[in-house]
């Protein structure tokens, strides 16, 4: 009797989980792969083949965009880590109890604001008639308006802005768990600032660093709005290529192949990152 | 902290932190402030304070509360976000009980499966669900001549698409809370003769409720601002982010978009505040 109830409740609890993962994650991805290996030979007639993938590799503009997206995303990840780590350390270890809560909350607020609004704000600040250019003119530092938008620097800055909070939040929660006496012990044993940082703080914060880097990299490589709005016509981000294949050209087979390539590429980078740092998905992102 | 840091270092460190928070606030302030500028363009010079971009009912300064298309977008966003939060909190709660209380083979593997949707780019989730739904809809139409309209881009697909990754977020929030639950409280209730349902209703769920509410609010906010997944699944009922994007790209930005931004920022801030307050443990008396 007792055992039957246990079985039944396990089954009832497992059902929603299984339906969700199977119908919305696994099946769609298998379907996407299936469509990506289809070739249109005549209207409504399809054959299996790798043509969509071959197209990707023979057309330099496609794989160039993917490589560009990947390398810029890595750069954004590194910048977010370098800029965000001192902030996270300040919040977790240096700020007093009261400022600490306030600073953390201030970090969370932009998280609740849509990407669209954040990019919109940057447009208002950086464009030729925008706040920064006008203020510089008013201050007499420049004579003619300057366009700060529509270049790679603007895209990278906008992306760092959008994702840095996803770096800071896991870092703060890991650094929070570190006992201050560990740092003191490091100094007492004769270590100086950089040594303590390198030998004690960074190894301790590793799960947080890896979790932050994974989420930031995925978000950047998969982002759509920021590169388009801040980079303008020549931003060429890979998600834009996917959108183009799907909506503009209505070529779903090749769009599916592109989607699959982006997924394979980002998964590969995440896998390599986990292997290199000796972490697992379970010890980083899944830790809440 | 016990370390005696060099004062110059500490001062520059503080300056860096201050500069960082300025950087965080700048675009949000810009997006909000221009909603109150009495000008047709969201840029300097400042022409004076106005509330026209919220309340005025005539062109060219049509305020957001009279702009039919923006209001419709707001309404669809609201419907979608409500659906997504209810669904994802329900499945998230089931997941929490499943992974905290039950034992079954390959549990670690399934736990990783639960986290995976969070690290799939949103665009990919959108297109894969679009492809599967369209394939099924086309197949049903050709072989059974059934018209499965809900599998065409539209509200149902947007809700499913957002639900697919937001459930991971709600699950993680609720799992964390359930792990803190002291099971001896349930045992005590059983010893006092309570039934399973009664224990769940009077002890376990009330304990879990703050986390469920907070997860629901987070789900609501994430759904409201989602763009990447929604973009591919949207039909004629476009939510607010898509409507705003269309306006920005096709018409160019006018301060009415700043008004919407301001409105959304205030709304999100209030909801986020509520979620912080419900999760806080009641003061012990």
UniProtKB/TrEMBL annotation, chain B:
CDD domains: TM_PBP2. Coiled coil: none annotated. It holds the Pfam family BPD_transp_1. One of its GO terms (biological process) is transmembrane transport. It is found in: Cell membrane. Residues 74-275 form the ABC transmembrane type-1 domain. Belongs to the binding-protein-dependent transport system permease family. CysTW subfamily. This is ABC-type spermidine/putrescine transport system, permease component II. It comes from Hoeflea phototrophica (strain DSM 17068 / NCIMB 14078 / DFL-43).
């Amino acid at each position: 009797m007792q055992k039957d109830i246990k079985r039944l409740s396990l089954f009832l609890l497992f059902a929603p989980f299984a339906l969700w993962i199977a119908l919305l994650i696994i099946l769609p991805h298998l379907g996407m792969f299936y469509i990506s290996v289809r070739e249109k030979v005549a209207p409504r007639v399809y054959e299996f083949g790798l043509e969509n993938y071959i197209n990707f590799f023979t057309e330099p503009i496609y794989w160039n965009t993917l490589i560009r997206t990947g390398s810029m995303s890595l750069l954004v990840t590194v910048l977010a880590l370098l800029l965000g780590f001192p902030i996270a350390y300040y919040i977790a270890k240096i700020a007093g109890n009261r400022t600490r809560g306030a600073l953390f909350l201030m970090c969370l607020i932009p998280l609740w604001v849509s990407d669209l609004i954040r990019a919109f704000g940057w447009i208002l600040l950086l464009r030729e008639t925008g706040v920064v250019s006008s203020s510089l003119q008013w201050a007499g530092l420049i004579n003619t308006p300057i366009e700060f938008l529509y270049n790679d620097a603007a895209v990278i800055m906008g992306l760092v802005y959008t994702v840095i909070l996803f770096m800071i939040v896991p870092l703060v929660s890991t650094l929070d768990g570190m006992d201050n006496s560990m740092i003191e012990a490091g100094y007492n044993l004769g270590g100086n600032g950089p040594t303590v940082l390198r030998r004690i703080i960074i190894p301790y914060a590793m799960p947080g660093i890896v979790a932050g880097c994974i989420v930031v990299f995925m978000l950047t490589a998969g982002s759509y709005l920021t590169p388009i709005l801040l980079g303008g016509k020549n931003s060429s981000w890979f998600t834009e290529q996917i959108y183009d294949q799907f909506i503009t050209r209505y070529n779903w087979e090749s769009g599916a192949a592109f989607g699959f390539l982006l997924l394979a590429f980002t998964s590969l980078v995440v896998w390599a990152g986990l292997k290199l740092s000796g972490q697992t998905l379970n010890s980083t992102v899944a830790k809440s | 902290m016990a370390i005696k840091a060099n004062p110059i270092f500490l001062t520059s460190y503080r300056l860096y932190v201050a500069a960082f928070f300025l950087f965080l606030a700048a675009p949000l302030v810009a997006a909000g402030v221009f909603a109150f500028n009495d000008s047709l363009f969201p840029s300097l010079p400042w022409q004076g304070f106005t509330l026209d971009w919220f309340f005025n009912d005539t062109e060219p300064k049509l305020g957001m509360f009279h702009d039919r298309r923006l209001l419709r977008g707001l309404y669809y966003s609201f419907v979608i976000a409500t659906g997504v939060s209810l669904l994802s909190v329900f499945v998230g709660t089931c997941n929490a009980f499943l992974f905290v209380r039950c034992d079954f083979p390959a549990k670690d593997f399934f736990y990783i499966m639960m986290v995976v949707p969070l690290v799939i780019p949103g665009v990919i989730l959108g297109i894969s669900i679009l492809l599967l739904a369209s394939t099924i809809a086309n197949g049903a139409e050709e072989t059974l001549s059934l018209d499965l309209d809900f599998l065409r881009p539209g509200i149902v697909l947007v809700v499913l698409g957002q639900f697919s990754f937001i459930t991971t977020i709600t699950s993680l929030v609720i799992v964390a809370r359930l792990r803190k639950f002291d099971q001896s409280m349930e045992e005590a209730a059983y010893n006092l003769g309570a039934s399973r349902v009664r224990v769940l209703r009077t002890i376990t769920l009330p304990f879990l409720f703050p986390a469920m509410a907070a997860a629901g609010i987070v789900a609501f906010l994430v759904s409201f601002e989602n763009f990447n997944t929604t973009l591919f699944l949207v039909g004629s009922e476009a939510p607010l982010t898509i409507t705003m994007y269309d306006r920005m790209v096709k018409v160019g930005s006018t301060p009415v978009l700043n008004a919407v931004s301001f409105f959304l920022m205030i709304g999100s801030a209030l909801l986020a505040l509520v979620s912080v307050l419900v999760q806080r443990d009641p003061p012990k008396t």
